[in-house]
Amino acid sequence: MRILAFDTTTMSGSVALLDGTRLIGEVSSEAGLSHSERLLASVDFLLKKNGLKIEDMDGFAVAAGPGSFTGIRIGLSTVKAFAFASGKPVASVSGLEALAWKLRDGPARLAAPAVDAKKGEIYAALFEAGKKGLKEIIPQGAYPPDAFLARLPGRRIIHFLGSGVRIYGDKISAYLGDKARFSSRSLFIAAEVGLIGYAKLRMGQAVDFKALEPIYFRSSQAEEKR
Q1: How far apart, in Å, are the Cα atoms of 1 and each of 30, 47, 121, 129?
Q2: Cβ(28)–Cβ(7) under 8 Å?
Q3: pTM of the model
Q4: DSSP assignments along the chain, one per residue
Q5: pLDDT tens track for 116-171
Q6: In this structure, which long-range contacts are made by residues 150-157, counting pairs with CB atoms below 8 Å and at least 24 apart in sequence?
Q7: Do domains 2-94+187-225 and 103-182 have the same CATH topology?
Q8: Which CATH architecture has domain 103-182?
Q9: 128 contacts 156 by C-beta, under 8 angstroms
Q10: Which end of the chain has fewer surrounding CB within 10 Å, N or C?
């Protein structure tokens, strides 16, 4: 099953092409260009390099959030267009789950993806990550950093990953001391979005592109003004 996967939720944007669980190629960049300027070019490059077209895909996977509201809308509108044109199914994936998925190898561990949500908040969650997948321990949501960190178990080692770690790393260390671990894994998640999406599509968990909704966890500025 060929899957084309997208992540436009943060500046660490990426597109990945997978055949089942095998990663064929990935284009990732934190360049200054906006997602609207680079997304289609990345897709075109990736498909042409592999002699494929959109019609050759068996499905799509997209990080539906949380993250940049503008970035999320670009990603969703793009995948909706591809799904409409090709008639292929779509899997909606949480970017927080995709980050935690990077830490599933090896023995089970606590994984805390944390993405900068601006306004003094983080999008975060706590998962038990292991070979059997992910188990959500603290629900995904938008949290003040202190409120999220206060909910974490203090006796177990917790692995952190995400843009929120760059900003609140000192605060995390203050709360957890030597129980905090900071992963050096890449923040590009299209490959992980594709892997999770592939599993969802195989289990019949596709989303109709017309019903595809963003994962925001809080109101946008426009909604707040209304």
Answers
A1: 29, 15, 38, 25
A2: no
A3: 0.93
A4: -EEEEEE-SSSSEEEEEEETTEEEEEEEE--SS-HHHHHHHHHHHHHHHTT--GGG-SEEEEEEESS-HHHHHHHHHHHHHHHHHH---EEEEEHHHHHHHTT-SSS-EEEEEEEE-STT-EEEEEEEEETTEEEEEEEEEEE-HHHHHHTS-SSS-EEEESHHHHHHHHHHHHHHGGGEEE----S--HHHHHHHHHHHHHTT--B-GGG-----SS--HHHHH-
A5: 999 999 999 999 998 888 999 999 999 999 999 999 998 899 999 999 999 999 99
A6: 150/175, 151/126, 152/112, 152/126, 152/176, 153/110, 154/179, 155/179, 156/110, 157/109, 157/110, 157/181
A7: yes
A8: 2-Layer Sandwich (3.30)
A9: no
A10: C
